[in-house]
Specification:
Helix content is 37%, strand content 38%. By secondary structure, it is of the alpha+beta class. Strands 1, 2, 3, 4, 5, 6 and 7 form a seven-stranded mixed beta sheet that branches. Strand 5 and strand 6 form a beta hairpin. The chain is elongated. 20% of the residues are buried.
Length: 166
């Protein structure tokens, strides 16, 4: 009987350990950051419908209000406090207009959690290519993001970035 229980105990311990690791706040936030960037990718050959849904695809990752800033100064496109609706509408418009948005899987440098707030340092290789083949974004984006736990989910509440070359 004991020998029959030993494999079950080992499986239960492994499943419990994995569940503990998977549900740690740092792991949840890292998956949310990665999910946000994966949801924002716009393939060059994608159709109008899928491009139009890109705003909705990122909506679940965003807080009701998001603050954007760049240490190089304000941008024409987006800066300061913005509502989630504004951000998703702007992103849907960009997705419809651009040729492609390429975002590699982000490298998470650090995640510091303080209760229901977290600060994430990450970098992502990003390219936004317009129909005339110009690239207003083309480089490594160094990001500092503030995430907040809102209604049980981690959502991005602020982002500051600076672009560096490859």
């Amino acid at each position: 009987m004991r020998r029959a229980l030993l494999p079950l105990i080992i499986v239960a311990l492994l499943a419990g350990s994995f569940t503990w690791w998977w549900t740690r706040p740092e792991r949840v936030i890292a998956r949310r950051v990665t999910g946000l960037f994966q949801s924002a990718v716009v393939e060059a050959g994608s159709g109008t419908v899928s491009r139009g849904l890109k705003g909705a695809a990122i909506e679940g990752y965003l807080a009701p209000d998001i603050t954007f800033s760049s240490p190089q100064g304000p941008t024409e496109e987006i800066d300061g406090l913005q509502s989630r609706d504004t951000v998703t509408a702007l992103y849907a418009s960009l997705a419809k207009y651009c040729r492609r948005v390429s975002l590699e899987t982000p490298e998470i440098g650090s995640i510091v959690i303080d209760g229901d707030k977290a600060t994430v340092q990450a970098s992502v290789d990003a390219v936004i290519e317009l129909p005339d083949e110009t690239r207003p974004v083309d480089g490594i984006q160094e990001l500092t993001m503030d995430w907040r736990k809102i209604e049980g989910k981690w959502r991005m509440a602020a982002a500051e970035w600076r672009e560096t070359g490859r």
